[in-house]
Design a protein that fits this description.
It contains 21 helices and 13 strands. By secondary structure, it is an alpha/beta fold. The protein folds into two domains: 249 residues, Rossmann fold (3-Layer(aba) Sandwich), CATH 3.40.50.2000; 165 residues, 3-Layer(aba) Sandwich (Rossmann fold). Helix 2 crosses helix 21, helix 6 crosses helix 7 and helix 14 crosses helix 19. The longest helix has 17 residues.
Length: 424
């Protein structure tokens, strides 16, 4: 069997979708190593793969320290200024450590399976050691296409978009992407920079598997042939998604609650949304389970909310949603996919540029309400809770449709097929 390295970091939604894939490959007999920040290692203790440090602490606790920046720039200019944080501040200065940690595992590996943003740096180790790279893409809405707006910017039409796409791949965008730092490190490693750019470096020249069902985000006709939609890859959570006794007792004690969770980014960047959502739910006499993301926020909220709500830093979301009636969230990939699979309607209050795309898409599908302005959140909550509006029925119907695609199983099949083709 093969040695497969899985590589990701940053927010929980950037990491959790790769867990069931890594576990499935390990159970199939492969030697699987998940290179990921050490903050995540205890969560994966029961999984059948081995964890290795990514070399830095680019994970939720560190990202919480940058909440003010995220709140200010998360959605402006198509989210472009967030790359100054992700790449310029949290990646470029640590490229030696990141590269050394990954290379230690990739050097004798048969395949590297990477998050797209992590692949910008991670691909260097794969190139040096001639290891096949496959990207598991969480963000098809960022794929460059003349048929779509770039990121969350307005759509100018196909002709103008073609010119913008050429610009995105040019050196004009180097300051935004911190490309100079990547190129300098590539030269240091003896790798070529001919034709290299960040937008293309987030993808693999060999194969790219979008961990999103085509029914949710249909493929565009000008996407590359090596880009395949495989479906969502949900993780049940630590310990197989077990809910502890306090949670189950709360769920058993009344009607199905509404989950309020803002993920890693929005919880610290826009915590006022918790209060707005809970006030709206109180007005409708609804119970809530609040996932505050970290201990400090959870302690603060728990002191201020009524006994009809349960506040915790983290609860496995997949099993919780199966016992809930709706969810208020930021539109992060992991939470969004679990809500869609569970068939519960969403109120989406985005904090980051990619989350705007999920808010827009759920509104198009009629499975959720997109909150464009903060003052609209109470109305959105009332809208999805009103049975006459049909959000629950549409969410359940869409869940049945996308649940027919087993994204985890298909990803494993594709990776094993690629292994066979590259080893022959």
């Amino acid at each position: 069997m093969a040695k497969i390295v899985v590589y990701s970091m940053a927010y929980r939604g950037d990491v959790f979708p790769y867990v069931p894939i890594a576990s499935g490959l390990a159970r199939a007999g492969h030697d699987v190593v998940f290179v990921v920040p050490e903050e995540y290692h205890p969560l994966f203790a029961a999984e059948p793969f081995r964890c290795a440090s990514s070399g830095t602490d680019f994970a939720p606790k560190l990202l919480d320290e940058h909440a003010e920046y995220v709140a200010r720039w998360g959605k402006r200019f198509g989210g472009g200024l967030m790359l100054r944080l992700y790449f310029g501040e949290l990646t470029i200065p640590y490229l030696p450590q990141l590269h050394a940690a990954l290379e230690a595992e990739v050097a004798d590996a048969d395949l590297l399976f990477s998050h797209p943003a992590a692949a910008v740096s991670g691909s260097m180790a794969a190139e040096l050691h001639d290891v096949p790279l496959v990207v598991g893409d969480l963000f098809p809405m960022i794929m460059l296409s003349e048929y779509d707006p770039i990121s969350s910017l307005p759509y100018p039409g196909r002709r103008v978009n073609r010119m913008l796409i050429r610009g995105m791949r040019s050196r004009l965008m180097d300051p935004m992407f911190s490309a100079k730092g990547f190129r300098a490190f590539r030269r240091q490693l003896g790798l070529s920079n001919d034709g290299w750019n960040v937008m293309d470096a987030r993808l693999s020249p060999l194969a790219n598997l979008a961990l999103v069902p085509s029914a949710y985000y249909p493929p565009r006709p000008d996407w590359p042939d090596n880009y395949t939609m495989v479906g969502f890859t949900p993780w049940e959570g630590p310990d197989g998604g077990r809910l502890d006794s306090e949670v189950t007792e709360f769920l058993d004690a009344g009607d199905a609650p509404v989950v309020v969770t803002l993920g890693t980014s929005a919880a610290s960047a826009q915590p006022q949304v918790f209060d707005q959502a809970l006030a709206a739910l109180d007005a409708h006499r609804e119970r809530a389970v609040v996932l505050a993301s970290n201990d400090d926020l959870a302690a603060d909220l728990a002191q201020r909310v009524g006994a009809q709500h349960l506040v915790r830093p983290f609860i496995p979301l997949a099993p919780l949603l199966r016992r809930s009636k709706a969810i208020v969230h930021s539109g992060a990939h992991g939470t969004n996919s679990l809500a869609l699979l569970a068939g519960v309607p969403s109120v989406i209050a985005p904090c980051l540029f990619d989350q705007v795309a999920h808010g827009r898409r759920q509104q198009e599908l009629g499975t959720g309400a997109w909150v464009r302005r903060k003052r609209d959140l109470p109305k959105a909550v009332a809208t999805i809770l009103n049975p006459a509006n049909g959000y629950t029925e549409r969410a359940q119907a869409f869940s049945e449709q996308i649940s027919q695609e087993d994204g985890t199983a298909r990803t494993i099949t594709e990776l094993e097929r690629i292994l066979d083709s590259t080893s022959s």
